[in-house]
Amino acid sequence: MILGVMERMQRDMMKQWAHFFLTYKFALDEVETKLNILNEEFQFIHDYNPIEHVKTRIKNPESVMDKLRRKNMDINLENAKEHIRDIAGVRVICSFSTDIYQILEMISQQTDVKVIEVKDYVLNPKPNGYKSLHLIVEIPVFLTNRIENVLVEIQIRTSAMDFWASLEHKIYYKYNEGIPPEIQQQLKESADMINLLDKRMLALNQEVLKHREFAIE
Question: Which pathway or pathways does this protein act in (predicted)?
């Protein structure tokens, strides 16, 4: 009898966790839909789309639980919701660095999106050269019997920034998080080269736009 009760409790707990992660999936759906709408309308009005593509991901339960353990917190839904802000993640890839702030402005103007936090690693890169704009936003998810406010992390970066970050991530884990100093230096130099490329491509794009405006006149 006791075993049966414990099994039911375990099933109930697993169902609660599954529903918990489902709300984050719904929040990602909401954010992705908003971004697609904004991008499509921007394309219609300005004949230009600031968003190249969007990637989404949800942390798996084991990753969330490990993060709670590292924070010396009890593993429960309340702590996961309150203290883990990146369970749901969206990565927005754009062409030029100016697009990053255009996208930030469009997101901020959404009346049902609350921007909780902004970390600007574009203007203030990390010591290793990493550049990206990180947002934590709160999204209302309308469920059958209630509204659940869910946190979503949004990272906005150029294609060049994403290229560097993706390869740096792979190298980081190949060295089991202990990258030799000379490799760190080369990664930083590569990040500087990527930054220079971003600036050159932005300048070229602005030059093309000037010529197009002149031709129209």
Answer: Purine metabolism; ppGpp biosynthesis; ppGpp from GTP: step 1/2
- pLDDT tens figures, 85-132: 999 999 999 999 999 999 999 999 999 999 999 999 999 999 999 999
Domains and CATH numbers, the chain: 2-159 (3.30.460.10)
- For residue 28, the tally of other CB atoms under 10 A from its CB is 22
- The catalytic site residues sit at 153
Segments of 59-177 assigned E as strands: 88-94, 114-120, 133-142, 147-158
Name residue 138's amino acid: E
Note the pLDDT of residue 4.
Answer: 56
- What pTM does this model have? 0.88
Q: Dump pLDDT digits (tens) for 194-205.
A: 999 999 999 998
Task: Retrieve residue 117's tokens.
Answer: 């936090």
- Over 80: is that where the pLDDT of 215 sits? no
Q: How confident is the model at residue 177 (pLDDT cuts 50, 70, 90)?
A: low
Contacts of 101 (CB under 8 A, 6+ apart): 133
Task: Collect contacts of 44-53 with beta carbons under 8 A, ≥24 apart.
Answer: 50/94, 50/95, 50/99, 50/102, 50/103, 51/92, 51/93, 51/94, 51/99, 51/103, 52/93, 52/94, 52/95, 52/159, 53/93
* Residue 101, both tokens: 């702030």
